[in-house]
């Protein structure tokens, strides 16, 4: 791994896109060609992708067995994975393997078969997770689940500005 490869790893790179490939098991990624996009994928000298985004949406995955191993075969820097799209598969739970990607900021899980709201608690260990989608899963029917709309966000922002006082800047007496 060269320093140049590491520095070129970027969210701005196109995703490694395996969407709509009828993938049943994660191991199939090693023999399947990713979809080509408008911009070509860049690769390290070892032939691995330099992207931080992996799209596996609209497949037939029901588990993530061997996910870490396969991702390490595909990506030069799997530890930098920031965006995983697993939407529209048949996942029934949130696999703990997803919690090992500490740079994960976007995780799409909508349109799966996740049944228990408690599954979401596993993701609390991901410090950079900013976008999580869960709509279209059976958990929507569970008591305590609620989606957040744009109107909810606007209301929360107004409330924040009205109720959270800005921090006062204090000048030390000795500094004068």
UniProtKB/TrEMBL annotation:
Pfam families recorded: LRR_8
Compartments where located: Cytoplasm
Domain of life: Eukaryota
Keywords: Cytoplasm, Leucine-rich repeat, Repeat
Listed InterPro entries: Leu-rich_rpt (IPR001611), LRR_dom_sf (IPR032675)
Entry protein name: Leucine-rich repeat-containing protein 51
Source organism of the structure: Vulpes vulpes (Red fox)
Gene: LRRC51
């Amino acid at each position: 791994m060269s320093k140049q490869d590491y520095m070129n790893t970027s969210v701005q790179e196109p995703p490694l896109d395996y969407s709509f490939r009828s993938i049943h098991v994660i191991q199939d990624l090693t023999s399947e060609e990713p979809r080509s996009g408008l911009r070509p994928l860049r690769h390290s000298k070892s032939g691995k992708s330099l992207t931080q985004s992996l799209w596996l949406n609209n497949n037939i995955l029901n588990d993530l067995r061997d996910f870490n191993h396969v991702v390490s075969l595909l990506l030069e820097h799997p530890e930098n994975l920031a965006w995983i799209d697993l939407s529209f598969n048949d996942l029934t739970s949130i696999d703990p393997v997803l919690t090992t990607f500490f740079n994960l900021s976007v995780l799409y899980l909508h349109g799966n078969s996740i049944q228990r709201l408690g599954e979401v608690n596993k993701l609390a260990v991901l410090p950079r997770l900013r976008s999580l989608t869960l709509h279209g899963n059976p958990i929507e029917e569970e008591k305590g689940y609620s989606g957040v709309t744009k109107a909810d966000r606007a209301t929360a922002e107004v409330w924040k500005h009205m109720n959270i006082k800005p921090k006062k800047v204090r000048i030390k007496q000795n500094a004068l």
